[in-house]
């Protein structure tokens, strides 16, 4: 019986589990949450979630974090050799932006990027400052903290070389993320089984246990998170991502404020407003940045979503919530927290129309400009990215043997698309053959994803909202002016030097929030090479005990 491990229990992961079970596989599903369903099916904490029947037929690992991937024992040699070759080829393919020292991390794990462990596990301290020479996140994942030697560093110990890099076995090259690095990525495609390193237990608990999984097939359904474009004052308390506001409303029945403005781009703004109204908040308005003509042209006649749209429109009308096209939040103001926001009308490219500013008195603002995929584990596994999303074939296979991807990490398309892709991935991963109905449904939902992108694009002129003192990286308080100066400094070529010079992306979120913005503003490529994919305490990392499962 094939063992299929699914990372992520949202719509894609649950559909994958169902169809893998139907095809006769032994299925294990992991999720960081304590309940299945993801953001889409999120319900009030402690209440039945409706997936009990499915959970009874599979291994369910709630509150579980996959913090590293590596090639399983016996499968590493050829893959590692190819990774090193691919990493060097990738640097050449991207213009040789890295120095020789930058390339010590054979699997594209840049030294500067890996040297900081954010979050509560390391207290935001740089490993170099902590006296630790490096982290081996997969070529001996646990040893891990002490030193890196062996073939990835050309036989030299990284501590002796003065490097704080990382070697990730099973990860493809830096070329896998570049637009034209497909050849190098294919050359470095790892084969064989992967080993997953898992932490089980509440993220803020002190007794998480370490486990190891070696599945026959892996399905990545890690989803996406909000993308929020910066604007002056967005670092103030009271400015929330749209997803965070909805999670609190749906999961805890808590409103983020009494008077709330919802703004950004995309249809997700509508269910967010609905959720806020349901918990008693006054929504003063919903602002869609794109013009009505752009939205209508992009959607066309998409009748299958008409009923859902009508429900949202009726809810807004019943509560007298105005909905405006072509307006954005350009500034949040307040002393200790947000007290008011300034909005303005924008053109089709999102450039601000002077003289159209309007101020709203609020105590919270929820902003979301679409979504950003979470491909860290996919990159660690060696998958190729295309425009930031994991590239898959018609069977949801990635470029890595026995690794599949489904849902928002392959393209933003909503819950229906995620379910359809998950169904195909689960069937194939378990050794089955998807029927024509499954494939047709998957293809139909991909059409929805294409319409979504056309109807709610990100306008190219949005940086015009920014001032030099606007904070871009909130973790490290890096300003737009500092980024511009560093991007124009010939002494700081490439994303590694930019990070070291400005610390943008080196804070607790590890560039998950500011990464796309920094890359766009500075003309660099966003990098997702994180050998340690999730925060882990140094004590947990040093613990040699891992339980096979």
TrEMBL record:
Gene3D superfamilies to which the protein is assigned, alphabetical: BFD-like [2Fe-2S]-binding domain, FAD/NAD(P)-binding domain, NAD(P)-binding Rossmann-like Domain
GO molecular function: oxidoreductase activity
CDD domains: GlpA-like_Fer2_BFD-like
Protease among keywords: no
Tree of life domain: Bacteria
Pfam families: NAD_binding_8 (PF13450), Pyr_redox_2 (PF07992)
Ranges of residues in domain FAD/NAD(P)-binding: 213-422
Keyword Oxidoreductase: yes
Keywords: Oxidoreductase
InterPro entries for the chain: BFD-like_2Fe2S-bd_dom_sf (IPR041854), FAD/NAD-bd_sf (IPR036188), FAD/NAD-binding_dom (IPR023753), Metab_Enz_Cyan_OpOx_G3PDH (IPR051691), Opine_Oxase_asu/HCN_bsu (IPR017224)
Bias type Basic and acidic residues, positions: 86-104
Region called Disordered, residue ranges: 86-107
Protein name, entry field: Oxidoreductase in 4-hydroxyproline catabolic gene cluster
Organism per entry: Amycolatopsis camponoti
């Amino acid at each position: 019986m094939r063992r299929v491990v699914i990372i992520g229990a949202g719509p894609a992961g649950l559909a994958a589990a169902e169809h893998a079970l139907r095809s006769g596989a032994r299925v294990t599903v992991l999720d960081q949450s304590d309940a299945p369903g993801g953001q889409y099916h999120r319900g009030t904490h402690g209440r039945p979630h409706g997936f009990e029947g499915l959970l009874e037929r599979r291994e369910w690992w709630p509150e579980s974090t996959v913090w590293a991937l590596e090639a399983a024992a016996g499968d590493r040699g050829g893959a590692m050799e190819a990774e090193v070759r691919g990493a060097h080829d990738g640097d050449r393919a991207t213009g040789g932006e890295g120095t020789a020292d930058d390339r010590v991390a054979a699997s594209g794990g840049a030294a500067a990027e890996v040297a900081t462990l954010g979050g509560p596990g390391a207290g935001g301290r740089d490993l170099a400052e902590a006296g630790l020479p490096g982290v081996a996140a997969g070529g001996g994942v646990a040893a891990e903290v002490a030193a890196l030697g062996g073939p990835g560093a050309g036989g030299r110990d990284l501590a002796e070389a003065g490097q704080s890099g990382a070697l990730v076995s099973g990860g493809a090259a830096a070329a896998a993320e570049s637009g034209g690095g497909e050849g190098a990525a294919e050359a470095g495609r790892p084969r064989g089984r992967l080993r997953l390193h898992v932490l089980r237990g509440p993220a803020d608990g002190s007794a998480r246990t370490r486990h190891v999984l070696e599945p026959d097939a892996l399905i990545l359904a890690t989803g996406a998170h909000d993308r929020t474009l910066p604007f002056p004052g967005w670092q103030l308390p009271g400015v929330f991502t749209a997803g965070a506001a909805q999670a609190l409303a749906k999961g805890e029945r808590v409103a983020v404020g009494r008077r709330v403005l919802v703004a950004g781009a995309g249809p997700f703004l509508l269910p967010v407003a609905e959720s806020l109204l349901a918990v008693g908040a006054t929504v003063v308005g919903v602002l869609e940045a794109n013009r009505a003509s752009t939205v209508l042209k992009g959607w066309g006649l998409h009748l299958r979503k008409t009923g859902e749209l009508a429900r949202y429109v009726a809810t807004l009308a019943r509560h007298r919530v105005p909905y405006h096209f072509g307006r954005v939040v350009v500034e949040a103001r307040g002393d200790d927290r947000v007290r008011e926001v300034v909005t303005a009308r924008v053109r089709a490219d999102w450039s601000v129309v002077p003289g159209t500013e309007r101020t709203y008195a609020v105590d919270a603002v929820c902003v979301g400009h679409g979504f950003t995929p979470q491909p860290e584990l996919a990159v660690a596994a060696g998958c190729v990215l295309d425009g930031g999303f994991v590239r898959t074939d018609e069977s949801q296979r990635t470029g890595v043997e026995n690794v599949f991807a489904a849902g928002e990490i392959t393209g933003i398309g909503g819950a229906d698309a995620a379910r359809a892709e998950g169904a195909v991935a689960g069937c194939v991963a378990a050794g089955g053959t998807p029927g024509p109905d499954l494939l047709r449904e998957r293809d139909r939902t991909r059409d929805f994803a294409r319409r979504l992108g056309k109807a709610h694009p990100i306008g190219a002129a949005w940086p015009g909202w920014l001032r030099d003192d606007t904070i871009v990286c909130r973790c490290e308080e890096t300003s737009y002016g500092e980024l511009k100066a560093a991007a124009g400094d010939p002494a700081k070529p490439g994303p590694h030097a930019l990070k070291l010079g400005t610390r943008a992306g080196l804070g607790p979120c590890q560039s998950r929030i500011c990464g796309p913005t920094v890359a766009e503003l500075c003309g660099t490529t966003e990098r997702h090479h994180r050998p340690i994919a999730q925060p882990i305490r140094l004590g947990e990392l040093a613990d040699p005990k891992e339980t096979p499962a």
